[in-house]
Amino acid sequence: MIGGMEGLRSTEAWIAPNNRDRIHDLFRQIASRVGGLVVSTFLDRLGGNRTVLALSFARLADAVGNSILFIILPLYVAELPAPAFPLPETVRVGILISMYGLINSVLQPVMGAVSDRFGRRKPMILIGLLVMSASTLAFAAAHRFSDLLILRSVQGLGVAMTIAASMALMASATEHGTRGASMGIYSTLRMVGFAAGPILGGWLHDRFGMNSAFYAGSIFILLGILLVQLWVHERPVPKSFVRPAFRLVDRSLLSAGILGTGLATFVMAASFSMMVTLEKQFNERLSQTALGFGVAFSALMVSRLLLQVPLGALSDRIGRKPLIILGLVAMAPATALLGEVGTTLQLTLLRLGQGAASAAIAAPAFAIAADLSKAGGEGRQMSIVTMGFGLGIALGPLLAGSLAMHSFELPFLVGGALSLVAAGVVWRVVPETLQRGAGKIPARKA
Q: What is the extent of the structural domain holding 379?
């Protein structure tokens, strides 16, 4: 007994405060390394390499800054005079929102060709983000509707530079066998930003006024610039690099698969962006505030961010094409019923449905485009798919504003019909690029 007590005392003496601290530090280091290994292995299986994660977090930051404007701009249009545009307010809102998407979409192939020509993506991403940040801040000084149109056009230029270069870099930095999951990570973090932005914008507008949203948006985009500069490391252009001829349209890079996925992203974006133009009408019909509309609007992003990575990973197992078709079919009723809602809860639930449908479309569509893209032409080929998304964002609100002059329900019925048509087109012309049991194709060199 005495020997046992002495042994216990000697053990307690050895585990002195300093020694206990060393033991705790040792266990923390072991746990950190084991945990880091587990997380690293999990991310590797999902295609989450350093470049993918760096671009994804940078897109999260600038998405917050950009999506803040979704809630603010329709309200801003109602406050500013428009002597040169004697049009109904809904049409002016549609024109403003569409201007951004049209400029963005038209310029994406140009910027994709420029990035292919020089073989460098990161500088173009940084310049594009800087243009977006400056133009967002400048909204606070606008005095007329025409000022808003000019600034939205400049924003369209900035985002065209950013998206074309980012998607080209994603295509060259991902592997065939995990590309769906990689695109899911990118889309998910971008959707986190788009989900937070409208809620933050509505809250800032209700609490501090219109200009506070512009200041916050500009700051978040600047954060995206910082993240790209610090985290994205692009390989230097090798001396053997041969600059391709500058061609905006190269028919050898166009295929039924690329164009079909571009159509899918166009219809997807047009369907879920229609309600932006009709914010004021929704608020009056449902007796809700800007914050209430922002919450309902962001519900799409919430369901999409929850499902994007799982559905992207699923497309790496069962194929890309089935999920795109399923998403378009599901998008049809979720869009068509938006004109029938009677409460904010009903609006929110349908937006959740649109988010789930878009999650099934987006990552697999980008993965197919990346699978089909050729080395040296990623910028132009990926820009076809992102251009489809941009055109949808542009024309969806414009179509809604025009059709709503005849009937509030009509835009959403048309959007639902277009989703079914797109599903049929994808089924007929888009190839399945994932071969079951095939090994991974190494990522192409940037």
A: 48-234+252-429
